[in-house]
Amino acid sequence: FEKINNLNNIDKSINKSLNNKSLNSFPNPTSGATTINYTLPQGTKEGEIVIYDLQGKEIKKFRVDNNFNNLQLSTNDIIAGTYLYSLQTQNGIVVTKRMVVIK
Known about the structure:
Elements: H1 7-16, E1 23-26, E2 33-38, E3 46-53, E4 58-65, E5 70-74, E6 81-89, E7 92-101
Antiparallel strand pairs: 1-2, 2-5, 3-4, 3-6, 6-7
């Protein structure tokens, strides 16, 4: 799976996916927990949802598959701030979006 190495790569991914509905979190902003809804590309059986801080540091990573279409994420152990979350497959980053955690 592709790793994001710096903020420039994250921004490029966000710009490519602004209208992509294959990844969304609700509620956003969130306090305590959020649900990340995802749709894997056709023909893809598994991927990862990866949470990054704005410096590009990986915060959390979850393996996902096409048996489900959402991930329940607790944000209790994440400090307040803005984060990026990506849906990634073996073919690269599918989509990246922003999530705000409030306390």
